[in-house]
Structures are given as structure tokens and as C-alpha cells.
Amino acid sequence: MFLTRSMIAWSLCCGIFLCGFPSWLCAQDQATDKPAEKKEADKPAAGKPEYEIRQDHDPNGIGKFYMGREIAYVMGIQGAIWLERPEREAEEAPSKLVKSLKLKPGQVIADIGAGSGMLSIKMAKDVGPMGKVIAVDVQQEMLDLLEKKLKRLKVKNVEGLLGTEKSPGLEPESVDLAIMVDVYHEFAFPYEMMVEISKSIKPGGRVVFVEYRKEDPEVPIKLVHKMTEAQVKKEIDQPEFHLKWKETIGTLPRQHVIIFEKQAAEEKKK
Ligand SMILES: C[S@@+](CC[C@H](N)C(=O)[O-])C[C@H]1O[C@@H](n2cnc3c(N)ncnc32)[C@H](O)[C@@H]1O
Predict the structure, then answer these.
(1) How far apart are CA 29 and CA 14, in angstroms?
(2) Mutation test of ligand 1: which of 71, 78, 137 has the most ligand atoms closer than 8 Å to its C-beta?
(3) Disulfide check for 264: which of 90, 202, 203, 239 has CB 3.0–4.6 Å away?
(4) DSSP string across 141-193
(5) To the nearest 10°, the Cα dihedral for 15, 20, 23, 28?
(6) Is residue 206 helix, strand or coil?
(7) What's CA 150's distance to the chain center, in Å?
(8) Does ligand 1 come within 6 angstroms of the Cβ of 137?
(9) What is the pTM of this model?
(10) CB-side exposure of 252: number of CA atoms within 13 Å?
(11) Which residue would you say has higher pLDDT here, 22 or 91?
(12) Span 62-71, mean pLDDT?
């Protein structure tokens, strides 16, 4: 099998060198989290979907399940080299992804789980100096990497924001579009995150999930790091999120782009 330099580097940094297709190409599990059973009681608010801890689970997941799906380990700082790999453009077409969002100058974008900010910097060009990208992450190390890159590239309209496992810490109705690229499946508290994310979106604004297609066995990523479109729609179909599915873009090589729209106040009453 042909190996590029960055694939080897990534495999080494994951400690899973050449364990074979498809697992060695994945966003491997650099846990920033404690094992699931040692965490605080993992329950969303009463009446909401519950989290379930199972002993029998995928070794790449944290053993915590939400609506039938196992949550993946968070990618650690070691994964930044993989996020920044030069082959990413050919493999995943992130430029095409950003173009498909049809961002407008002046818009405020929240790149939630921004990592080292590869996507944030691309989106910053489209929103121009009157707009901005808020790059949210739970790992300060990722935000530090981003900060260095912003200085080096003289990018002024991206700002880092340290979030928590339960909230990105965004202001209410302040964001035109929130995007999660290869992130949502890592949320330790997806329900709580989505309550907060939906609050931060302006009426008519969009929430975009970019996830590796689980429907496609050819996509070379570990199973817990993939999601089906049906699972994303199931998890987002909760009245308190006020999010309505708008479209799914299926033109990227490995990921689907699943877009929801925040309903305006009158629509919510219906
Ligand atoms: C696989 S990386 C993707 C990074 C980036 N979106 C990209 O595609 O280049 C996932 C990122 O999500 C972050 N993350 C996980 N849970 C998060 C949460 N609850 N809030 C914000 N960021 C989170 C991780 O720290 C990690 O940097």
C-alpha cells in the first residue's frame, strides 16, 4: 500500500503504525477525556434522551452511548499534524466544502471544534474584514497552534474561544452559521452542546454537520468517527433545538454536509 509522509507521521503519533486499512488512516483516539465510567453522572435534563454507559463497546469509543451511537474519543493535539496534512485537499476537498456554504461578507461563523483552524482560515477569507470566524475548541493547545498560524499568516478576522464539553460559550443569537467538521461525533455531551449551539444561532441561520459517511464502507475512517445522515437527523430532531433540516450536500469525496436551519420565532409557534 502506498504511504505518504504525513500518513506515516500520523500513524506513528497515534501509536498504531500500519495496522492496516481502514483503521490506520483514521482520526485516531488521543483521549483527552477520562474513561467513561469515571465521569460525573452523564444525564441530560429530565425527559431528554439519556446517555448510556456500556462495558462492551468499540475500543475507539468512550463506552458512552447517545441515541444508539457510541461517542468517539476526542482527537488530541497529536492529531493536528493529520488535520494539516497536505493531502487533505485531495482527499476531502475542504475548499469545495467552504465554497458550498456560500458564505457572505460580514457574516459571523462559529467553527466549533476548530482544531488547528484549517477550515476557520479558509472561511475567514469568504466573510471578509467585516465578518469573523469564532474558532471554538475544548483544547487550549489547539487554540495555541491556531494563534501562531493566525500571526504567521496575518489573519485578523479569526478569534479563538475556549469552550467546555457542554457549551461553546457563544453569545445568544450572535452567529449566522455554526459548522462542525469531523467534530460532532466526539462531543461527550451532544445534547447539551446542541442546546447551547442552537441558542447562539440567529433566526434563519444555519448549523452544518460535516461527518464521514458511515453508509460508505469505502471511506477509510474508524466506525465511531463516522455517522450516517439518518443518525445525525435523528439526534437533531428535538423541538428544543428549533433546527429544521434544509439540505444534504453529497458532493465531497468522504463526508456528507448536513445542513439545518434555525427556525424564526413565528415558525417555532406552529
Ligand atoms: C477531529 S478534530 C477536527 C478539527 C477541525 N474541525 C478540522 O476538521 O480540521 C475534532 C476537534 O473537536 C474538538 N472538540 C471535541 N469536543 C468538543 C467540544 N465539546 N467543544 C469544542 N470542541 C470540541 C477537539 O478538541 C478537536 O480539536
Answers:
(1) 7
(2) 137
(3) 203
(4) HHHHHHHHHHHHHT--SEEEEE--SS---PPTT-EEEEEEES-GGG-SSHHHH
(5) 20
(6) strand
(7) 20
(8) yes
(9) 0.87
(10) 27
(11) 91
(12) 98
Instruction: Read off the pLDDT band of 236 (50, 70, 90).
Output: very high
C-alpha cell at 3: 504511504
Distance CA 105, CA 10 (A): 36
Atom of ligand 1 nearest to the CA of 193: 19
Ligand 1 site, residue 186, Cβ cutoff 6 A: yes
For residues 178 and 207, give the distance between their C-alpha atoms in angstroms, rounded to a whole number.
5
- Give me the mean pLDDT over the 30-34 stretch: 37
> Tens of pLDDT along 5-30?
444 334 433 332 222 223 333 333 33
Q: What is the mean pLDDT of residues 241-247?
A: 98
Separation of alpha carbons 217 and 105, rounded Å = 38
How many CB atoms are closer than 10 A to CB 205? 22
Residues with Cβ within 8 Å of 138's Cβ and at least 6 positions away in sequence, in order, are 32, 74, 113, 162, 163, 164, 165
Domains and CATH numbers, the chain: 5-72 (no CATH), 87-268 (3.40.50.150)
* Beta carbon of 208 within 6 Å of any ligand 1 atom: no
Cα-to-centroid distance, 269 and ligand 1 (Å): 34
